[in-house]
Each structure stands twice: as C-alpha cells, then as structure tokens.
C-alpha cells in the first residue's frame, strides 16, 4: 500500500500536498499518516487473528502521545523500556494489563511504578533483576508477573548495532541458563511466572531467524513443563523489517503464517512487540534546502534537518529515500550529498543522491516514522522538530517545535 501520489508535480502524502504542510508548519517537521498507522496495525491484528494474541507496540520506535493514543484505540498494548515510556502509556490511558516492560536496566523506581500500576509482565533480562524484582514486590506486597527474556543465540542477519539475540549481546538470559533460572524464579515468593520472551534484532528481512528463535523457546517451554512450570504466553519480540530502498521484507501475513504453523497445538498466548513495521513507512521528515554548495569533489545540498533530527544515516549508514516535494522538470538533475547543519562530517541524510533542486526547495526524507523523532537530540542546541499527523484529510500538529526558551530553561534558572 502506498500513501503517495503526484498531482500537478506536487508530492501528495495521504491526500495532502507536502509543500503545503511545510509552509504551514515550517521545517524540519515529521509528518505521519493516521491511515498508514492504522493499516499497519491491522495487518498484524488480522494476520494473527486465528490465534490468541496481543500486539504490544514497541513505543521506542515512535512515542508521540497522539500516535500512542491512536494505537491504544486500535486495541494495541505497549512494550516499554523505561519509566518515561510507562508514563507516556499512562498519559494516553493505556490499560496497564496490556503493557510489557522490557529493558536491561530497570531501576528500583521504575520497578515500583510498574508494580503499582500493575503491568502485564516484566521481561526480565538477568538474574540480578529477578532478585531485585522479587525483593521490591515483597516490600510492596505484590506478586510480580514475569517472563524471562531468553537470548536464543540466533543470528538475525541484520546490522550489528541492532542485533540483540546473539551470545555477545548484552540482552537477555543465555539459553543454556534459562531452565535453571526459571526453576529459581519458581522458588521466589513474590514472582508469578507468566511467560517467556525473546527479541533477536530489528529490521529482519527473513523469516527463518524468527522460526529458529521460536523453535528454541518452544523447546524450553517443553522442558519447563517437565519441571512443572507452565507458561501462559510466548513473546516473540519485535516485528518484521520494512522497505527503505530495495529490501524485500516478508509480508506480515507470511510471517504470521510461519509462526502460527509452529505454534499449532500449543497452549500459549502469542505476544508480539513490533515497532518499526507499525510506524516506519507511515512517516517522513520534511526539510528545506538552505544552500546549494558545489564542491571540488562533491555537490552538497545543505538542508535544515540534521543528524540531531534523524540520526539513522549517521549511526547505521542507513538509507532513506529523499525526494523533492515539488518536482521541477526544467531543472537539471545533479548528484548531491544531502547534509545537515550540524558540525560533524557524519551529519548526512543521504549520499550521492540525484536530485533536481534549488535553494529553498523542500525535500521529504522517507521511511522516517520509526526511530526518527525518538532518537533525536538537541546537539548543537538545535530545537527538536515539530510533528504533524494527517487524519481524515486534515493535518494537525501533534508536537510543537521545541522553543529556545525550553532549550535553555533547565540551565538558565541555575545561573549563578
Ligand atoms: N522489543 C524489544 C525488546 C526491542 O528491543 C525492540 C527494538 C523492539 C521490540 C522493536 O523491534 P522492531 O519491531 O522495531 O524491529 N534504532 C534502531 C533500531 C533499534 C531496535 C531496538 N530494539 C534503528 O533505527 O534501526
């Protein structure tokens, strides 16, 4: 499904001309389509309809409150990794019993809050965390629902920075230790074993690593049964990858088919934590060309969005398509590095892009809905971008552009 079209040489996104949105809200601005978000969620929900399932949107991909509210209204639960993300979920009225809490470094304060509000499950990543959780639950007189995040040692065949299920990654409990740690958990007074969990990596473009991870978890499930430990759910972690350029990630329906085949006959609820595939291609970043700078070796299109707005190209050498929002047939195309205002040579949004553009033109950086705004920073004291949602044919602001007052306030008040 594409949400783009061209009309009178203007790029239309979910029914609205992007140049109009740039003029109205300024740049840099993230723009999302509610329709695309809902359809992405529905793809998962429908594909897994034959089995008992819960889709917990991994909000680290994009945690704008309006987007969380939209997903909650579609019936989504949430995967959170911090007290901050928990507060976001609560701020949109998300049901705590649909929240799973992942993350390697849950603090005492975060665990307390999660126990008090009653999250569905803690995805426990170490024995030390298990002990801390048991202790705090005991103090609060609560029973903490847990699953162990097992590290299945499966190669997800993705970028090393976003592989999470290999032996040398910091995440989860080693597969070889999992049975023992479950036995230990079953002996702890203030814990209730709810399920098992894994997450092997992000931007997976093949189904096989998911199948391998699932096979290992099901094997563990059988072993635990022998030990008298019954799991209620199995959480297979994040979702499938998305298309940024020429990748061919599996359709959600094909992924679901494979997973459901393996799960047949199992008395387990399936929990999934997709992030990128729910939001990535539902969003883009609008930016304006400040200067065209011909160079000796390269031509540069210097734009007003930088690595502080979208760090993926700098951090992972990630590819994002970049297209002018108004095409100009009479303008000669040149090859540009599209670079930002930040004082780093890694501050690029795209390299060697053939574009027919002038100073002042607006560009759309595509597939930027996931890990865009959430990974943005104030580096170079740059205010964070605005965010806009297109819904029912209208665009509305869902996060105002940060003001310079906001940027300085925490320090200004403390000037001696
Ligand atoms: N669950 C857990 C425990 C995770 O760590 C992640 C992502 C997800 C779910 C969501 O996975 P997804 O469906 O999005 O693949 N910043 C990187 C991606 C980091 C992913 C980290 N974990 C990027 O921009 O590519």
TrEMBL record:
<dbReference type="InterPro" id="IPR000183">
    <property type="entry name" value="Orn/DAP/Arg_de-COase"/>
</dbReference>
<feature type="domain" description="Orn/DAP/Arg decarboxylase 2 N-terminal">
    <location>
        <begin position="37"/>
        <end position="279"/>
    </location>
</feature>
<feature type="domain" description="Orn/DAP/Arg decarboxylase 2 C-terminal">
    <location>
        <begin position="30"/>
        <end position="369"/>
    </location>
</feature>
<dbReference type="GO" id="GO:0016301">
    <property type="term" value="F:kinase activity"/>
</dbReference>
<feature type="binding site">
    <location>
        <position position="312"/>
    </location>
    <ligand>
        <name>substrate</name>
    </ligand>
</feature>
<feature type="binding site">
    <location>
        <position position="276"/>
    </location>
    <ligand>
        <name>substrate</name>
    </ligand>
</feature>
<keyword id="KW-0663">Pyridoxal phosphate</keyword>
<feature type="binding site">
    <location>
        <position position="316"/>
    </location>
    <ligand>
        <name>substrate</name>
    </ligand>
</feature>
<feature type="binding site">
    <location>
        <position position="239"/>
    </location>
    <ligand>
        <name>pyridoxal 5'-phosphate</name>
    </ligand>
</feature>
<keyword id="KW-0457">Lysine biosynthesis</keyword>
<keyword id="KW-0418">Kinase</keyword>
<comment type="pathway">
    <text>Amino-acid biosynthesis; L-lysine biosynthesis via DAP pathway; L-lysine from DL-2,6-diaminopimelate: step 1/1.</text>
</comment>
<feature type="binding site">
    <location>
        <position position="371"/>
    </location>
    <ligand>
        <name>pyridoxal 5'-phosphate</name>
    </ligand>
</feature>
<comment type="function">
    <text>Specifically catalyzes the decarboxylation of meso-diaminopimelate (meso-DAP) to L-lysine.</text>
</comment>
<keyword id="KW-0210">Decarboxylase</keyword>
<keyword id="KW-0028">Amino-acid biosynthesis</keyword>
<keyword id="KW-0456">Lyase</keyword>
<dbReference type="InterPro" id="IPR022643">
    <property type="entry name" value="De-COase2_C"/>
</dbReference>
<dbReference type="GO" id="GO:0008836">
    <property type="term" value="F:diaminopimelate decarboxylase activity"/>
</dbReference>
<dbReference type="InterPro" id="IPR022657">
    <property type="entry name" value="De-COase2_CS"/>
</dbReference>
<dbReference type="Pfam" id="PF00278">
    <property type="entry name" value="Orn_DAP_Arg_deC"/>
</dbReference>
<feature type="modified residue" description="N6-(pyridoxal phosphate)lysine">
    <location>
        <position position="60"/>
    </location>
</feature>
<protein>
    <recommendedName>
        <fullName>Diaminopimelate decarboxylase</fullName>
        <ecNumber>4.1.1.20</ecNumber>
    </recommendedName>
</protein>
<feature type="binding site">
    <location>
        <position position="371"/>
    </location>
    <ligand>
        <name>substrate</name>
    </ligand>
</feature>
<dbReference type="Pfam" id="PF02784">
    <property type="entry name" value="Orn_Arg_deC_N"/>
</dbReference>
<dbReference type="InterPro" id="IPR002986">
    <property type="entry name" value="DAP_deCOOHase_LysA"/>
</dbReference>
<comment type="subunit">
    <text>Homodimer.</text>
</comment>
<comment type="similarity">
    <text>Belongs to the Orn/Lys/Arg decarboxylase class-II family. LysA subfamily.</text>
</comment>
<keyword id="KW-0808">Transferase</keyword>
<feature type="binding site">
    <location>
        <position position="344"/>
    </location>
    <ligand>
        <name>substrate</name>
    </ligand>
</feature>
<dbReference type="InterPro" id="IPR029066">
    <property type="entry name" value="PLP-binding_barrel"/>
</dbReference>
<dbReference type="InterPro" id="IPR009006">
    <property type="entry name" value="Ala_racemase/Decarboxylase_C"/>
</dbReference>
<dbReference type="InterPro" id="IPR022644">
    <property type="entry name" value="De-COase2_N"/>
</dbReference>
<feature type="binding site">
    <location>
        <begin position="273"/>
        <end position="276"/>
    </location>
    <ligand>
        <name>pyridoxal 5'-phosphate</name>
    </ligand>
</feature>
């Amino acid at each position: 499904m594409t949400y783009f079209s061209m009309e009178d040489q203007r790029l239309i996104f979910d029914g609205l001309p992007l140049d109009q949105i740039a003029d109205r809200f300024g740049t840099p601005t993230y723009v999302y389509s509610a329709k695309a978000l809902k359809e992405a969620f529905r793809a998962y929900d429908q594909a897994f309809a034959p089995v008992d399932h819960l889709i917990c949107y991994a909000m680290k991909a994009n945690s704008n409150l309006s987007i969380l509210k939209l997903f909650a209204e579609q019936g989504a639960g949430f995967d959170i990794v911090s007290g901050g993300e928990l507060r976001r979920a609560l701020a949109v009225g998300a049901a705590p019993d649909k929240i799973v809490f992942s993350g390697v470094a849950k603090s005492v304060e975060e665990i307390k809050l999660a126990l008090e509000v009653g999250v569905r499950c803690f995805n426990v990543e170490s024995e030390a965390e298990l002990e801390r959780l048991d202790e705090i639950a005991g103090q609060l007189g609560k029973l903490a629902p847990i699953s162990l995040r097992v590290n299945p040692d499966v190669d997800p065949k993705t970028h090393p920075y976003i592989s999470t299920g290999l032996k040398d990654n910091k995440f989860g409990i080693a597969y070889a230790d999992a049975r023992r740690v479950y036995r230990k958990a079953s002996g702890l007074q203030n814990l209730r074993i709810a399920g098992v969990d894994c997450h092997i990596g992000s931007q997976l473009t093949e189904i096989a690593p998911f199948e391998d991870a699932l096979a290992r978890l099901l094997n563990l499930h059988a072993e635990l049964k022998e030990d008298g430990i019954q799991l209620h759910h199995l959480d297979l972690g994040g979702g499938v990858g998305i298309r940024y350029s020429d990748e061919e990630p599996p359709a959600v329906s094909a992924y679901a088919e494979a997973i459901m085949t393996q799960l047949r006959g199992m008395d387990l609820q399936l929990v999934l934590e997709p992030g990128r595939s729910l939001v990535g291609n539902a969003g883009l970043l609008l930016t304006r060309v400040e200067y065209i700078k011909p160079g000796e070796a390269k031509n540069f299109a210097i734009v007003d969005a930088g690595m502080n707005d979208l760090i993926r190209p700098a951090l992972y050498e990630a590819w994002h398509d970049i297209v002018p929002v108004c095409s100009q047939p009479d303008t000669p195309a040149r090859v540009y590095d599209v670079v930002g205002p930040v004082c780093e040579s890694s501050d690029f949004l795209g390299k060697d892009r053939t574009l027919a553009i002038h100073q002042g033109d607006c560009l759309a950086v595509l597939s930027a809905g996931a890990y865009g705004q959430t990974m943005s920073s104030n580096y170079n004291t740059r205010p964070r971008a605005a965010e806009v949602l297109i819904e029912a044919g209208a665009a509305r602001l869902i996060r105002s552009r940060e003001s310079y007052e906001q940027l300085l306030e925490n320090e200004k008040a403390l000037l001696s």
